[in-house]
Design brief:
The protein has about 350 residues and is an alpha/beta fold. It is built from nine helices and 15 strands. It has a five-stranded mixed β-sheet with strand order 3-2-1-6-10. A five-stranded mixed β-sheet has the order 13-12-11-14-15, with helices on both faces. Strand 8 and strand 9 form a beta hairpin. It starts with 18 loop residues before the first strand and ends with a helix.
């Protein structure tokens, strides 16, 4: 996705030193993954240079939108200084419940012509006024029904949240060279190409992103405004605990421990499970006969004990948590500390991997 309103000299996503930086603006922290990403013989080789992050105070980023730009800028300056990241060119992730992704076939045009024609192709698909959205198109190949058409995914994101995020990032002295949909980043870092149909779910503090793909091609993308912080807040209210104690109890007990916490958590997590189930059922209804082979979970809330079992029972599909660093290979010179890998997210890693997409 091109940066909206970008002018001036061209910047490349991959720097002269061979590294790309993915930037994930989360609700509880901001995280960067500086990776060496190369494509060799059709396969990605990914080495980590730096994985780092700093926590954010509540209210700075809410549901994927930057609310306090000055505070975010300050946190980014701290992050770059603390981890000596070096390069100031970043690939910025966009996640928002209002982001729309739809399959679309458009005339087979070169990228410049396609960008000019896209608003005309999208006007009957997008409910929002076109001047209020950022449009992009991810081509997936020549249409099987008409060789003069290209099949792909139309992406429409509200413009103002994207602009606000770019302003806060660039106020920290960084340059946004690309804006990428976090859902696509999630797919790059967490999908398993060995499965024909897989559901990949990123469970964050405020947002949960659900992607169904077939052999790596996204077929359903949805982001819902539910996450781990909502569970903590409601658990604290129900059991009359402080937020800190409720978070500790949630992490320690999960959905399977004896006592009063797990039964309450099972009840509280039910709406999130219902949102996931409805998304998966929508895919199943549109693709009769398709068999989902696995559900892969990532994100901080994915570590909730028993959540994988609950999802597996809901969807009748095996579910398991996957590491955001599973595709990273030990580099020749490892400059990131082992403890820093805790800052890695599927989104930051996938954003950097997108530099060669």
């Amino acid at each position: 996705m091109k940066r909206p309103g970008r002018h001036g000299r061209a910047h490349k996503a991959v720097r002269h030193d061979g590294h790309a930086i993915g930037l994930d603006l989360g609700a509880t922290s901001v995280r960067a993954a500086a990776l060496s990403v190369k494509s060799r013989d059709g396969e990605l080789q990914v080495h980590s240079k730096t994985l780092g992050g700093v926590p954010l105070a509540p209210g700075i980023v809410v549901n994927g939108e930057v609310v306090d730009g000055a505070a975010l800028t300050s946190a980014l300056k701290t992050l770059w200084k603390a981890y000596d990241i070096g390069s100031d060119d970043v690939i910025l992730g966009v996640a928002n419940p209002q982001v729309l992704v739809r399959e679309l076939s458009i005339p087979d045009l070169d990228p410049h012509q396609r960008a000019r024609a896209l608003p005309f192709q999208a006007k009957d698909v997008i409910a929002m006024p076109l001047e209020q959205v950022v449009l992009d198109f991810a081509p997936l190949g020549t249409s099987t029904s008409d060789g003069h058409l290209t099949d792909g995914l139309l992406v429409a994101s509200p413009r103002e949240p994207v602009i606000s995020a770019i302003k806060a990032v660039e106020a920290a002295g960084l340059t946004v060279v690309r804006v990428d949909l976090s859902s696509f980043a999630l797919l790059r870092s967490s999908a398993d190409g060995h499965f024909g149909v897989e559901v990949v779910i990123d469970l964050g503090a405020h947002l949960t992103t659900i992607v169904v793909h077939e052999h790596g091609v996204p077929k359903l993308v949805r982001t819902v405004a539910r996450g781990g912080e909502e569970l903590t807040a409601k658990l604290a209210e129900r059991l009359e605990l402080s937020l800190g104690v409720a978070e500790d109890a949630k992490c320690a007990d999960g959905l399977t421990s004896p006592g009063e916490v797990s039964p309450v958590l099972k009840e509280l997590v039910a709406p999130l499970l219902a949102d996931i189930r409805s998304s998966v059922n929508y895919y199943r209804s549109s693709q009769p006969g398709a068999r989902i082979e696995r559900v892969s979970l990532t994100g901080r809330a994915a570590a909730l004990t028993g959540l994988d079992i609950a999802l597996s029972l809901q969807l009748d599909v095996p579910a398991e948590a996957v590491s955001p660093t599973r595709l990273l290979e030990p580099p020749g010179r490892q400059t990131s500390k082992a403890s820093d890998e805790g800052w890695a997210t599927a989104l930051s890693v996938g954003l950097a991997m997108g530099a060669v997409a």
